[in-house]
């Protein structure tokens, strides 16, 4: 950390070099914003961060209509990214959501709730009985279970997405500082204190840590 040459001022400081911080920095870079700096306390996409690994599922199959709309918007943005990236960023293979048919909402939603929202928002899906699920997939659900299959859902190739964003950030002349832990946000002086007694002032701040 002591050898890192930190600028005195940046236009946009971003704390955290996971998917949220890097995608924000890449979007700003693509919009032509200069003097953007990402500060990551560890290595980028390190194994203790939430963004570590090869894939993350994406779907529009949510019981909450707002989440469903957000997922639709997000899929448009992924498609835009893919149109200018040399990498494949997603793999569309469909997703099966199966289990009890009751309408109690869990952290992942509920099957009747997701079905209602998908009907309202015209999202294609198949309704599957337990028997149909075991014909199509290598699982044997309980007899009373039901499922929804969303064919256009799939997996985000998260490590490729991260590689893609890093290139966009660097190719546009913006900076990523690894091993650079932010100790304190000084909101009176709009500056960040970095471990090792360095500091950087900013015009705008994004916290993605
Ligand atoms: C096992 C697992 C499976 C998941 N599956 C899915 C899925 O299928 N679909 C889905 O949509 N989501 C999924 N998620 C959630 C998704 O991965 C996270 O929401 C996303 O990766 C969060 O990204 P992030 O950038 O906010 O956080 P992180 O990737 O954790 O990045 C935050 C970064 O901030 C850094 N940091 C922290 N403090 C400081 C500091 N003081 N100074 C500098 N840097 C700092 C950290 O080191 C870290 O690198 C899953 C998460 C996990 C863990």
From TrEMBL:
Transmembrane segments: none annotated. Coiled coil: none annotated. One of its GO terms (molecular function) is flavin adenine dinucleotide binding. Residues 11-208 form the FAD dependent oxidoreductase domain. Keywords: FAD, Flavoprotein, Oxidoreductase. It holds the Pfam family DAO. Its cofactor is FAD. InterPro entries: FAD-dep_OxRdtase, FAD/NAD-bd_sf, MTOX. This is FAD dependent oxidoreductase domain-containing protein.
